[in-house]
């Protein structure tokens, strides 16, 4: 029991239980079955819909039986990222949490505190016989991280409450009353390959050691994108040498900033030493550029076996030009809520699917639906100019802030009463399921809050121990006050 002794004891107990159960996005069958069994073991009304969402109801405690029904909501799935040197099968292996000073971390993988800690809080409340609360509905949704398909699939009437506490935020002391909407833009770039003639030399160029992070909440922190850093070097080489890309792979999930990227490139043997000199100069330059924002940045160049085939010169240029031109990062800041990102785009991943195609994944977010589409169309235009096939996902709506929310007043008053200071009330640039709940259940009164997490969607993910206890106290006080 790595987390034994942490407070609140039962929250950390259930978090460690959750870490033992594999729960990648779209593969939540094991955790869903475990939740259903958990509800039945407590003799609580429990149901699961066709999408896999689970709802567990608990009656109000004595004297609170007729209070308004409160929905506590989290999502089952987690982002599955690991360091390149970590052996881990997310479909089978448990997450291994451990205490490091003030934080709980995982060994070489994402921790899954997003949103395992939200689930753990719900389970602790459901299991307790000592917490004062009105009627509760604990909603656990599936596939929040890769498509919000659980929230999309919710049918009206699955739950009854019209007050909802979303347990999926990452900054203690901040109360979220709105979020960005989002859309995915996927690219299939057709490419031609050719056999590699004699007299060629191959090298593998890699970028690693970046922080990565959440493509919404961390997009304004100035972090490096491994695909962009690698592509910049290759583009410059292509201007100087006879260069062909044999393979290019970088990033992973659409909602994570690319942390690692690598490419195998082929040059004439006579260009071997000039290429190494160019790389050393570029690596030194990038270390200076990123020394504050990305102190862990590593750029490596090593000889590689000459592969059988490579992209043609024309398609090498098409790929590198398109990736260079593709926007990434903050597009605009909000005028309505100063200091907040309004619109952004993430160049998430490049995968060489087969010999004739390269897949590129991007995602866009905005508080304004038309601006979300505008930046998605800008990304699409870049790749269509390169001859690619571009498709957009269904997207999901934002959640418009309601500063006059009665629930918000209860939450803010509770925080001040407990901690003697005002919480920060804001909107978040990340996507939350609240926008979809509002579409299906008009009139819902909602807030989102949570403990402090850092490095989410990357193996650097960690959760601050002290803020979990603060968040727990705040949540229990809200349940008394609603």
3D architecture notes:
30% of the residues lie in helices and 28% in strands. The chain is α+β, with helices and mostly antiparallel strands and 482 residues long. It has two domains: 9-180 and 398-481, Zn peptidases (Aminopeptidase, 3-Layer(aba) Sandwich), CATH 3.40.630; 183-392, Alpha-Beta Plaits. Strands 9, 11, 12, 13, 14, 16, 17, 18 and 19 form a nine-stranded antiparallel beta sheet that branches. Strand 1 and strand 2 form a beta hairpin. The mean pLDDT is 95.
Question: What's a concise summary of this model?
Answer:
The protein is built from eleven helices and 23 strands.
Structural category is: alpha+beta
Total number of domains: 2
Largest sheet: 9 strands, antiparallel
- Computed over alpha carbons, the radius of gyration is 24 Å
Which helices and strands appear, and what pairs or packs with what?
Elements: H1 9-19, H2 29-41, E1 46-48, E2 54-58, E3 70-75, E4 97-100, E5 103-106, H3 113-127, E6 136-141, H4 149-153, E7 163-166, E8 174-179, E9 181-190, E10 193-195, E11 200-208, H5 226-240, E12 244-251, E13 261-268, H6 272-289, E14 298-304, E15 309-311, H7 313-325, E16 329-333, E17 341-354, E18 357-366, H8 369-385, E19 389-392, H9 406-419, E20 424-428, H10 434-440, E21 445-448, E22 453-454, E23 462-464, H11 465-481
Parallel strand pairs: 3-6, 3-7, 7-21, 8-20
Antiparallel strand pairs: 1-2, 2-6, 4-5, 5-23, 9-18, 9-19, 10-15, 11-13, 11-14, 12-13, 12-17, 16-17, 17-18, 22-23
Helix pairs in contact: 1-3, 5-7, 9-11
């Amino acid at each position: 029991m790595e987390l034994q002794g942490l407070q609140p004891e039962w929250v950390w107990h259930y978090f460690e239980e959750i870490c033992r159960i594999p729960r990648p996005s779209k593969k939540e069958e094991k955790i869903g079955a475990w939740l259903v069994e958990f509800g039945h073991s407590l003799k609580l009304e429990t149901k699961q819909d066709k999408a896999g969402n689970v709802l567990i109801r608990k009656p109000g405690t004595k004297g609170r039986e007729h209070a308004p029904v409160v929905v506590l909501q989290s999502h089952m799935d987690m982002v599955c990222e690991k360091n390149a040197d970590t052996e881990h099968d997310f479909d089978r292996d448990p997450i291994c949490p451990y205490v490091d000073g003030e934080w709980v971390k995982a060994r070489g993988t994402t921790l899954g505190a997003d949103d395992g800690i939200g689930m753990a809080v719900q389970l602790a409340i459901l299991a307790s016989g000592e917490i004062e609360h009105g009627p509760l509905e604990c909603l656990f949704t599936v596939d929040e991280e890769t498509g919000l398909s659980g929230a999309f699939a919710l049918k009206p009437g699955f739950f009854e409450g019209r007050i909802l506490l979303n347990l999926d935020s990452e900054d203690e002391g901040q109360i979220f009353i709105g979020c960005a909407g989002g859309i995915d833009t996927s690219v299939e770039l057709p490419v031609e390959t050719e056999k590699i003639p004699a007299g060629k030399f191959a090298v593998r160029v890699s970028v690693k050691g970046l922080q990565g992070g959440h493509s919404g909440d961390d997009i304004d922190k100035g972090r490096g994108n491994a695909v962009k850093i690698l592509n910049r070097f290759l583009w410059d080489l292509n201007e100087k040498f006879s260069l062909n890309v044999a393979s290019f792979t970088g990033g992973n999930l659409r909602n994570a900033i690319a942390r690692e990227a690598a490419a195998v490139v082929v040059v004439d043997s006579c260009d071997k030493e000039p290429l190494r000199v160019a790389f050393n100069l570029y690596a030194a330059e990038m270390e200076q550029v990123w020394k504050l924002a990305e102190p862990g940045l590593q750029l490596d160049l090593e000889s590689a076996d000459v592969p059988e085939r490579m992209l043609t010169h024309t398609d090498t240029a098409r790929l590198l030009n398109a990736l260079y031109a593709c926007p990434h990062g903050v597009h605009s800041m909000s005028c309505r809520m100063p200091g907040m990102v309004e619109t952004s785009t993430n160049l998430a991943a490049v995968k060489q699917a087969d010999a004739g195609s390269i897949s590129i994944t991007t995602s866009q977010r905005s508080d304004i639906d038309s601006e979300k589409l505008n930046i998605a169309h800008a990304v699409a235009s870049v790749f269509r100019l390169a001859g690619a096939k571009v498709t957009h996902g269904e997207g999901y709506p934002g959640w418009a802030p309601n500063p006059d929310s009665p629930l918000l007043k209860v939450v803010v008053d509770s925080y001040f009463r407990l901690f003697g200071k005002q919480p920060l009330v804001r909107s978040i640039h990340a996507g939350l399921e609240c926008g979809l709940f509002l579409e299906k259940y008009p009139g819902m009164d909602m807030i989102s809050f949570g403990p402090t997490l850092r490095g989410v969607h990357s193996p650097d993910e960690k959760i601050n121990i002290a803020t979990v206890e603060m968040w727990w106290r705040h949540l229990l006080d809200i349940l008394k006050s609603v």
